[in-house]
Specification:
Layout: H1 22-38, E1 44-55, E2 58-60, H2 66-76, E3 80-92, E4 96-108, H3 113-121, H4 137-142, E5 143-147, H5 150-154, H6 158-169
Antiparallel strand pairs: 1-2, 1-3, 3-4, 4-5
Length: about 180
């Protein structure tokens, strides 16, 4: 895209609000990430993002420990789930903001416990929603089919982000 972003991690705690939908949660967290980083930036366009895996309308965030990662992968085994990635754009100092989300349906094959254990032992799933990365060696072989944007499952729906950013820069932005 020709962008050279400065990466500044957000320090917000990812807490799901059960009174709103998973999509609304992803949007809320993406905006919270952008606003948190915005406190340390004087001007520019801040991008915040958040990815949530949803199985049977239950959100799966990042695993809290090894056992949680194993349990998440067992839950996803042999099933279809939805990956929601939301991103927020915040223009400082103008205060303009925009938030969008994309959903992708992902199907997993049945996963033997040995494969789950081997993947979790790599440590890779520990910082990923749903305890897997489709871009990982192991994570990629769990997936039998996707419906929608591959890059959304990786963590940023690149095409939607690009077109939204173009509109935002042109001044067509509302949250």
């Amino acid at each position: 895209m020709g962008l050279e972003p400065e990466v500044i991690p957000s320090s917000i705690e990812e807490v799901f609000d059960p009174s709103i939908t998973p999509d609304q949660n992803a949007r809320m967290l993406a905006l919270a990430n952008a606003e948190d980083v915005g406190h340390s930036v004087k001007s520019g366009i801040i991008v915040g993002a958040d990815t949530i895996v949803v199985l049977d309308n239950k959100p799966l965030g990042k695993p809290v420990d090894r056992e949680d990662a194993v349990n998440m992968l067992r839950l996803l085994s042999g099933k279809e789930h939805t990956v929601i990635t939301a991103f927020a754009l915040l223009d400082l100092p103008a205060g303009r903001k925009r938030c969008e989300s994309v959903q992708t349906i992902v199907s997993f094959r049945n996963l033997p416990d040995e494969e789950i254990e081997s993947y979790v032992s790599t440590g890779s799933p520990m910082d990923k929603a749903g305890a897997y990365g489709i871009q990982d060696d192991y994570g990629s072989v769990f997936v039998t089919r996707i419906e929608g944007c591959f890059y959304n499952v990786v963590g940023l729906p690149v095409s939607k982000f690009y077109t939204t950013l173009q509109e935002f820069v042109a001044g067509n932005s509302v949250i």
